[in-house]
Each structure stands twice: as structure tokens, then as C-alpha cells.
Design brief:
There is one protein chain. By secondary structure, the protein is an alpha/beta fold. Helix content is 34%, strand content 32%. It is built from 10 helices and 18 strands. Helix 7 packs parallel to helix 8. It is globular and about 70 Å long. 41% of the residues are buried.
């Protein structure tokens, strides 16, 4: 059995991640989190600060051309590797150990129940036998592992086990990017799990550290709106829907006769004809708030829950002007832009004003960088 997953328990949540090394060598060895998305490579490095706080040492964002990453698949390894190398240099990093992420849809997870009296060898054999029922690929095509969550809730004679698997080529593509960029892939996490870890830092700023609150994280990327609802560190609901910032870029490109790349650059710089905010930005902001409201209604109708207590916005669209107010008006739920760095020390290497704008984009990269502090 290919064993490349490792378990992390943090804030009461079980996280699985591909561990690509037997040992880091020493606990808390330097590690950079590298998030490869459809539009950019984002890199974050954390360290231990004073009084048990984390410290943001450095970060960088490097844009990717359209088509380099499509639907979570790395289509142009050399292009992504070049962007990763530029981000590493721009940030001023020295460490070459890296944690990367896989899209949630690239990982298959399944909770199963097995007898508690199995030896480690028997448990592994049983897991491999069970995996054939749940994984729609030949086992030699996947990286597969498991972690024991604990006693089964309904039977003292059984244990609950989380089985996880991913196609080997999805892992290998990201390892290839790291190697071509001069880095060493040490951990392959799951992107949404990484963002949940970063959310735990942000929610610690809420009353009572967010305990007892239903927190809805909306991560608004280039093509996908991901919603995760979390209660006391446990994910109770998660869903992706097709909506993202590329829709705004495409509208601008069509209206002004620009290429997609030109429209994206002008959108970021605000270098567009007068009135573009009214004609395009405001309608997109309203549409984004409507999508969030619809996602919440779907959550309410498909789960036992009938409320959320706090909406937190992440991703590139989170900092759109007036989006927070638009979401509050649509949902009547307190809403804020998320930043996992508010409780951290900030290194002099980091420009704090720029960080305020970039923080919502860095949720996944921050969560990946936090793997440095795994027990």
C-alpha cells in the first residue's frame, strides 16, 4: 500500500495530508506554504514568535497566465514552476522545504468502521481490501492511506477510520513544479483543509474564540466559490459552485475589446474607462452577494441547521469595494473579510498596508505554512 498521508489534529479537527518525507529532520524546521491556484502562485513562510504567537516572516504573490492551471490541473508545469521560483525569490526565502495543496475534488475520503482488535498489519490489509469498494481507480494508480479517528460512536468493539486517496499524477504534477522551482516538496495537503486551519487563527479573534458559533467561510476564487461551514473546529458542510472573479474579467474584456490578460491587468490596476465601476464592478458585486445568499439557502435546506452566526470572506474577490455591505444586506448575517494574520507578529520584511489587501488571498498558503508546526 502506498502510504503518503499523515494525520494532524488541530482545533479538534482531523486533517489529512500527504507527507512526502519520513521526517522533517527536526520539529518546526523551516517550511514554506505554496498555493497554486488558477491565477497565481502564493507563498507564505511562518516562524515561531514571542509568547507562543506565530510570526509572518514573508510572503509573495506571482501571477500566472491563463491556461497554466485549469480546473485544478497543472497544464504547464514549466510556467507554474517559473512563477513559483519568482515568488520564492521575491519573498526573500532561503528555505527550500515546501508544503503544497491539492484541490478538494482531487481527493477521495471515506469514513469506515473496522474491528478495534486488529494489529497494525491486519488493519492495513483490511483498509486495502476496503479501499477497492470506495475508490473508482486501480489501487496502483492512487496514493492511499488512512488514519484512525477513534472509537466508533455506535460500537465499543469498532474503530472509526478515515480513508483517503488521490490519483498519483495529481500529486506528482505538484511535486514536479516544486522540484523544477528548486524546492523540495515535503507535504501535500488538501487546499480546503489548509484554509480551515488558517480560519481557526482568524476565528480566535471572535467572541469566546468563536466557540459555539456557526462560521461560514466563503472563498471566492477565479472560477469557484467554495463555502465551508464550521462549528467548533469541525466542518459540518462544504460545497463548491461555479462562480468567480474571472466572470468580471471576461465582461470587461468583451466590453472594451481587450484580451483576457489585458483586462485582468487593467482590472487590478484600476486602469479602465470612467464608469466601469458602475457598469461592471457594482453588478458583479451584487451578483457575488446573491450567490452567497443562495449558497446559504442551500445549506439551510440540505442540513439540520437554520442559521449561521458569522460570514467570513476570503479569496481574491473578498476585498471588492462594498462587497461586505452587499452580503450583509442580502443575508442579514454579520460579515467580515478574513485575515489569519491579525493575531500574528509581522516581520519587518512585510509591508503591512499591502498585506491588508492580500491577506484574504493567502488563506490556503498560510494553512500550508502552518504544517511546519505539526506535532
Amino acid at each position: 500500500m502506498s502510504t503518503v498521508f499523515s494525520e494532524l489534529r488541530a482545533q479538534g479537527e482531523t486533517r489529512l495530508a500527504f507527507d512526502l518525507s519520513a521526517l522533517f529532520g527536526s520539529r518546526n524546521a523551516p517550511l514554506v506554504g505554496v498555493d497554486v491556484s488558477a491565477t497565481s502562485v502564493k507563498l507564505v513562510e511562518l516562524s515561531s514568535g514571542a509568547n507562543g504567537r506565530l510570526r509572518l516572516e514573508r510572503y509573495a504573490i506571482e501571477q500566472l497566465p491563463r491556461g497554466a492551471v485549469v480546473d485544478g490541473n497543472i497544464e504547464k508545469v514549466d510556467v507554474v514552476a517559473d512563477a513559483t521560483r519568482r515568488a520564492w525569490r521575491k519573498a526573500g526565502c532561503r528555505t527550500k522545504n515546501a508544503a503544497l495543496g491539492l484541490p478538494l475534488q482531487a481527493v477521495i475520503t471515506k469514513r469506515i468502521f473496522l474491528p478495534a482488535n486488529l494489529s497494525d498489519e491486519e488493519l492495513e490489509l483490511q483498509i486495502e481490501s476496503e479501499a477497492n469498494q470506495y475508490i473508482p481507480f486501480a489501487l496502483d494508480e492512487v496514493s492511499i492511506d488512512f488514519c484512525v479517528i477513534g472509537p466508533a460512536p455506535q460500537s465499543k468493539d469498532d474503530i472509526e477510520v478515515l480513508l483517503a486517496a488521490a490519483r498519483k499524477e495529481r500529486v506528482e504534477d505538484r511535486v514536479a513544479v516544486a522540484e523544477a522551482a528548486g524546492l523540495k516538496a515535503m507535504v501535500m495537503d488538501v487546499e480546503s483543509y489548509a484554509s480551515h486551519a488558517a480560519l481557526a487563527l482568524a476565528s480566535a479573534q471572535l467572541p469566546n474564540r468563536g466557540e459555539g458559533l456557526l462560521l461560514a467561510l466563503f472563498y471566492i476564487g477565479a472560477n469557484t466559490l467554495n463555502v465551508s461551514v464550521i462549528l467548533n473546529g469541525q466542518v459540518v458542510y462544504e460545497r463548491d459552485q461555479a462562480f468567480g472573479g474571472n466572470q468580471l474579467t471576461q465582461d470587461i474584456a468583451r466590453a472594451y475589446g481587450l484580451s483576457f490578460e489585458e483586462a485582468e491587468a487593467k482590472k487590478r490596476a484600476g486602469d479602465l474607462p470612467e464608469g466601469w465601476e458602475k457598469d461592471f464592478l457594482q453588478p458583479f458585486t451584487d451578483a457575488c452577494a446573491l450567490e452567497i445568499a443562495r449558497a446559504l439557502q442551500f445549506f439551510f435546506t440540505s442540513t439540520p441547521y437554520s442559521r449561521v452566526d458569522q460570514i467570513m470572506l476570503g479569496g481574491g474577490c473578498a476585498v471588492l469595494p462594498d462587497l461586505v455591505d452587499a452580503v450583509v444586506n442580502r443575508t442579514q448575517v454579520p460579515t467580515s473579510v478574513v485575515s489569519p494574520f491579525k493575531a500574528m507578529e509581522i516581520s519587518p520584511n512585510v509591508r503591512e498596508r499591502q498585506l491588508q489587501a492580500d491577506a484574504p488571498l493567502l488563506m490556503v498558503a498560510c494553512g500550508l505554512a502552518m504544517r511546519r508546526f505539526d506535532q
